[in-house]
## 1
Amino acid sequence: MPVIKMHLTATSTITGNVNTSTSTTTVPTVNRYTAAVVLGNIIGGTTVIPATSFTNDSGGSVAAGGLVVASSNGYYNLFQNNVLQRGATSTLSAANLTINSALIVGVTIVVEVVNFSSTSTSTSTNNFAITTSIKS
């Protein structure tokens, strides 16, 4: 007995779009440290101030290795006697601040570290319509 095969063609058309809205919140975290340059900080042509020489915004001592450093989403400012210094004149690590020049004893140093964290939430809605026609 011969087999009869049915041949059908289905065509679908999709119309519509997707709407996406995104809300982003960025929060800065600021840490400030203050120290005075002492004779032992000046080494050759540089000034190295260890973390333990700094106090934080609350007036508390900073522990060894306790300085907050700028993340890839942050930066730090260096002030010498309340004057903002140009970038690339110092290096900040958790252990110390290194200034690329020999400062005078008694100079007040303020370091301001600003890090940013961001969170985003997206919501998508669609209004797709699908129409399918089948032809033999």
## 2
Amino acid sequence: MRSNDARTLLQVALPTAGAGVLAAVISGVVAGGKGAVGAIVATVIVIVFMGIGLVVLERTAKSLPHLFQAMGLMLYAAQILLLFIFVAAFKNTTLFNPKAFAITLVATTLVWIAAQTRAHMKAKLLYVEPDSSNSEKPGNKGSSS
């Protein structure tokens, strides 16, 4: 993983973890210990799923730049579908509070998306990578008259 990829992942994961901690505290106060556990599980799921997606998207951008936009749309659709499946699978669980889980899942996903948008807007990325092997400058190809 390149340093700017790791920096982006850090700039996105830290606010998401912070939102998860805040959600765990609020859920713990409102719904007790099971609410806090549900918020922590939801935060971990969001960070893992979205982190894997970010790594896959960054690698796709470097190896297959022409597929970047389509891959990004497909990846976000798959991530939202997987998060929906987790909400549906754990809606009747007794391990933690399902409402705290679902609300935290949505909230931390929104924080992740906002932080990722901010990180990409602040990143200084080259549109075209300069070719260092060709040091000769192109000559004037037009007519001299």
